[in-house]
Amino acid sequence: MIRSSALTDAGRSRQTNEDCYLLNDRLGLFVLADGMGGHASGEVASELASRTIEDFLKAVDERRELTWPFGYEVKNPYEHNVLRTAFKLANVKVRQAAAQELKWSGMGCTIVAAWVRENGCFYSYVGDSRLYLLRQGQLRQLSHDHTLVAEQVRLGLISPEEAKVHELRHVVTRAIGGRERLEVDVNQERLLPHDVLALFSDGITDELTDSEICGILFAERTLDERCRQLVDAANEAGGEDNLTVVLLENQP
Question: Cα–Cα–Cα angle for 139, 141, 143, nearest 5°?
Fold first, then answer.
């Protein structure tokens, strides 16, 4: 059984909160989106993208004989096709909304989603919102940042230490609402009893090290308490951005 909890906070430096999270325990769907575009538009993009993903998963849950608007990759599992299609639909919806309202021009969001089914987690992401797995005290990042500096690290052009302070570290190479054609990463992870999945906006991961995150997640506290401690710790470390965390625990 999956237990879930979430918390969002504007942080200490922002007047608005453009982050958004969605918890649908019935579907086993958990989404975190980090809006981009400033003012109200980032909030609109993150909310619209999250709801579009949820709506598509609701639709396929009710009837599988849907038309697949972007085709169906028969070599990949059904769940991969569902998440990939949902993300691409979200991209279309956000781009359409931005084209119809001048005040929303250029809006977009990074996003990460976890879909838990029969003791497995299927996950997808675009941008630098992250998914982590805590298993037996060991923390592992499941997602890979779609940012300029992260790609430079993967190519060996700069070190991870240099990436953390690089002036372009927040430049994303993929986002919902960005380009017309969207590449979507989809993967899966078998879940074990007591595993904890953590979805973060970059406001959390910019302020806290993996070691600090691991220490909080591994503590014997409720999920609500761990959410609050993560947000409080990120605020104490600076709170330069919006802060959002979604925690899931696989309870036997």
Answer: 160
- CA distance linking residue 252 with residue 248, whole number of Å: 13
Bridge partners for 130 per DSSP: 200
The three-point CA angle 17-162-140 to 5° equals: 65
pLDDT digits (tens, 9 = 90+) for 78-133: 999 999 999 999 999 999 999 998 889 989 999 999 999 986 999 999 999 999 99
CA 168, CA 156: separation in Å to the nearest integer?
A: 16
Closest by CA to 201, choosing from 189, 213, 192, 183, is: 213
Task: List, for the chain, all residue ranges whose pLDDT scores fall below the cut of 50.
Answer: none
Residue 111 phi/psi, 5-degree rounding, is -160, 150
- In this prediction the pTM is 0.94
Picking from 111, 84, 87, 105, the residue whose alpha carbon sits closest to that of residue 20 is: 111
State how far Cα 83 lies from the chain centre. Answer: 13
Residue 132 backbone class (left: φ over 0; alpha: ψ -120 to 50; beta: rest): beta
Q: Are strands 29-36 and 120-126 parallel, antiparallel or unpaired?
A: unpaired
Cross-sheet strand order for the sheet of 243-250: 2-9, 243-250, 196-200, 130-135, 138-141
Domain containing 133 equals 2-250
DSSP 112: E
For the record, the structure tokens of 203 come out as 């406001």
* CATH code (residue 202): 3.60.40.10
Please tell me the total count of domains within the chain. Answer: 1
For 47-57, b/e burial (b = at least 16 CB within 10 A) is: bbbbbbbbebb
